[in-house]
Design goal:
This protein has 25 helices and 16 strands. It is an alpha/beta fold. Strand 12, helix 14 and strand 13 form a beta-alpha-beta unit. The protein starts with a helix and ends with a helix. It holds the Pfam family Peptidase_M28. Keywords: Membrane, Transmembrane, Transmembrane helix.
Length: about 800
């Protein structure tokens, strides 16, 4: 009874609550609950559930059965609506239940009817994803199967990789390539180039092409040039053999190619004047005692560039020149005293198109003669006959230099005939594309020669070395390796006539090469002797060349301890050094020089016969050493993130070249000191951090390399005397230490009693040093600006 009485007020309140709600709906309210109704209903249900959960005798297990019935059953006697006070539950039931960690474990709710639909939708999504996944696998598989693998997945470039490549270069392979090249018949330049192209292509070099140019060559005539003694009427060939002998016994090609290409043609009868080496001192001495106008100079090759000495003789008024090599200047192992030779009077490129390429439609000048002098190379044996030197006067223990007696007057007749004609020369150009900096080129150049026996073995030696290097590289390239920078392999044509092939190609691509070439590695004549290694490098590459020697010298090849120098060299590196300002290097084996006058003897091209090269290097170990040294330098330049150039060495070379008291260099030394300070700052602040992989930002490395590859361009002067380098960083030879343009200006002053040339030369040098200092400083400013912008 007590419980019924207690429940009565609750039932009355509940009935009153439903009645009020019914009346409100009857007064026109929508059958759908508005937002207020929804909130009230939610609060009612929340309160009901809270009350049930708070009942003292509540059994949690009864909810399992209650879950099968609608929760809103108002007939349940257990529901208690007494405390309907929404403000009593501000958080709400669901939030409080979420805070109860045991709620999920003892309360389960019947899944809503929409769960079945949700499950179907999820199943559809899973099926779709699975189908797309399988389709992607199939597409990727067939795409990978059809597309070739990327060549840029390569192994990292490091010294270990370099050694793997270089160990494939073997002496026996170079020897075999050399002998194969000698099997080529004596053909036109283009035919030889086509066979080299086929060989390089067979090795796997991907992009090999010919670059053909029609150029003006000065070839020997149908008969040999002659020298006749007017006193006795005796006629001689350049080799010293008399003209009345049967030519069948002579090497006809040797006779024909004993000439000076691009010399003046004709006949000259005049007195022979001995000018020794043709220096300024020699000319001053001769002109003091005789009139040299239209006379024939007896000139020794060596000591100074031939073109420079000929320009002095031409200015002095000579009409002709007999050119020879004094046996005392030749290495003791050389047997060239009785041999004539060939020289070219062309400073570089096609003479008919100076300064621009020999392309179709280009205007051509008539320049078959590049001098007014009639120039004829002759053997030392002929000179001995001309000066009537008895055989027993030659000392056995020491060499006596040849000299025409002052009292002996010789009148000779010089007959020179050659034929100027246009011929096609071909360059072979092959590319191994880089993966990181494909627009930066490292050029390695050899040359081929179709001039019959002249220089025949030299070109075969040069081409064999570069071909062996290509073969070693392509073995690694087939495994996925690629250099960071593009390596360009070149075999030049027309080298004997004045580096014509390299000049024409470089003039043709001048704008591209000015921007893209970072270095030139020369293989002009790798083995011209067997006594000592002779490394030559521009100042920025001297340290790299020295380091490479210590890694790659083959045993018993006499290369340790060789000093690297920056001196003028022969060959096709000329245009790259003197017109593009590109750092260059060259390794070669030579014989020990016997005198200080031995410089520039390489300008003579002797007939080299089949056995000569194999006598110098029978095992081809010297060739192997040159190939590995060249390969080491090329690989480092092509692959190191920061170009291995030394900026400070350039500044030091400049300061060393200004030593001496022959000219007033006070102002030059002050500018050179500032250049050194800036170079030291550049070396320490920019190059050292860039060589640390932790601090190596790609954009910063690219900026740094752009500065490094143009370091030497500031030292290319506008004009230099004939035969002297425009790049003043290169000295004349190992004997000289000053800038060659300054030395020449001093000599010119002695000859003409004027200091205008000295002032002009000093201005050129001053401008070059100052330009280099400004360039270094601008590079530093760019890096500081970039660093400030980054911060």
């Amino acid at each position: 009874m007590g419980e019924d009485e207690a429940n009565a007020p609750r039932q009355d309140k509940k009935m009153a609550y439903h009645k009020v709600n019914a009346e409100q709906r009857a007064q026109g309210h929508s059958p759908y609950l508005d937002s207020d109704d929804l909130q009230a209903t939610a609060l009612d249900l929340e309160w009901d559930m809270e009350k049930e959960l708070e009942e003292p005798g509540f059994d949690p297990f009864r909810l399992d059965g209650a879950a099968q019935h609608p929760l809103g059953n108002s007939q349940s006697p257990d529901l208690d609506l007494e405390p309907i006070q929404p403000s009593m539950s501000p958080k709400g039931r669901f939030q409080r239940l979420q805070e109860d960690p045991d709620y999920i474990s003892h309360y389960t709710r019947q899944a809503p009817k929409s769960n079945r639909c949700n499950f179907c939708q999820m199943l559809k999504v899973l099926c779709t994803v699975l189908i797309l996944f399988i389709l992607g696998i199939l597409v990727g598989y067939y795409a990978h199967k059809r597309c070739p693998p990327s060549p840029a997945s390569p192994e990292p470039n490091n010294p270990h990789v370099y050694q793997e490549i270089l160990k494939e270069i073997k002496a026996e392979n170079i020897q075999q390539i050399y002998r194969d090249l000698l099997q080529f018949p004596r053909e036109e330049d283009t035919d030889v180039a086509m066979k080299i192209l086929a060989r390089w292509t067979s090795l796997g070099l991907e992009d090999v092409q010919l670059a053909n140019y029609s150029v003006l060559l000065d070839l020997p005539g149908f008969s040999s040039n002659t020298i006749t003694l007017k006193n006795s009427g005796e006629c001689f060939y350049p080799s010293g053999q008399q003209c009345n002998r049967e030519t069948k016994k002579l090497h006809s090609q040797d006779l024909l190619y004993s000439y000076a290409a691009y010399s003046a043609k004709g006949t000259l009868e005049a007195e022979l004047v001995d000018v020794q080496y043709g220096t300024v001192e020699d000319l001053i001495r001769i002109q003091a005692v005789t009139d040299v106008t239209k006379k024939i100079a007896l000139l020794k090759l060596g000591q100074l560039p031939l073109l420079y000495k000929l320009s002095l003789l031409e200015d002095a008024g000579f009409g002709g020149v007999l050119l020879y090599i004094d046996p005392c200047d030749l290495p003791k192992t050389a047997e060239l005293a009785d041999k004539a030779f060939m020289v070219s009077l062309n400073s570089g490129g096609d003479p008919s198109t100076p300064g621009y390429p020999s392309s179709d439609g280009i205007y051509r000048r008539n320049r078959s003669n590049l001098t007014t002098l009639l120039v004829q190379p002759v053997s030392a044996g002929l000179v001995k006959q001309l000066i009537s030197l008895p055989e027993d006067s030659i000392g056995k223990d020491r060499c006596i230099p040849l000299e025409l007696p002052a009292t002996d007057k010789k009148i000779i007749s010089l007959n020179i005939q050659s034929v100027a004609t246009y011929k096609t020369i071909s360059n072979v150009i092959g590319y191994l594309k880089g993966t990181v900096f494909p627009d930066r080129y490292v050029i390695i150049g050899s040359h081929h020669n179709s001039l019959n026996s002249y220089g025949g073995q030299e070109w075969a030696s040069s081409t064999a070395v570069i071909t062996a290097f290509i073969e070693a590289l392509m073995l690694k390239a087939r495994k996925g390796w690629r250099p960071d920078r593009t390596i360009v392999f070149c075999s030049w044509g027309g080298t004997s006539f004045g580096n014509i092939g390299s000049y024409e190609w470089a003039e043709d691509l001048k704008r591209v090469l000015q921007r893209n070439v970072v270095a030139y590695v020369s293989l002009h004549n790798p083995v011209r002797g067997n006594s000592t290694l002779h490394p030559i490098a521009s100042p920025s590459l001297q340290q790299l060349a020295a380091e490479s020697q210590s890694f790659n010298c083959v045993e018993k090849t006499k290369c340790p301890g060789s000093n690297v120098s920056s001196v003028q060299i022969q060959g096709d590196s000329d245009y790259f050094i003197n017109h593009l300002g590109v750092p260059a290097t060259q390794f070669s084996y030579e014989d020990v020089k016997t005198s200080e006058n031995s410089s520039f003897l390489f300008e003579a091209l002797f007939p080299v016969h089949t056995t000569k090269t194999e006598e110098l290097d029978p095992s081809f170990r010297l060739h192997e050493t040159i190939a590995k040294l060249t390969g080491q330098v090329t690989l480092r330049i092509a692959n190191e993130p920061v170009l291995p150039f030394n900026a400070l060495d350039i500044a030091l070379e400049v300061q060393n070249s200004l030593k001496g008291d022959q000219v007033d260099t006070h102002q030059l030394l002050a500018v050179a000191s500032r250049l050194r300070d800036t170079a030291e700052l550049f070396q320490s602040d920019e190059m050292r951090p860039a060589n640390d992989p932790k601090e190596r930002a790609p954009i910063r490395v690219r900026m740094l390399n752009d500065v490094l590859q143009s370091l030497e361009k500031s030292f290319v002067v506008r004009q230099a005397p004939p035969g002297l380098y425009r790049n003043i960083l290169y000295r004349l030879d190992e004997r000289t230490s000053q800038f060659s343009v300054l030395l020449e200006a001093l000599e010119h002053c002695k000859l003409h009693q004027s200091n205008e040339t000295i002032q002009a030369a000093l201005s050129e040098v001053l401008n070059s040093i100052n330009s280099a200092q400004v360039y270094f400083k601008a590079g530093l400013d760019v890096f500081e600006t970039a660093l400030a912008g980054k911060k």
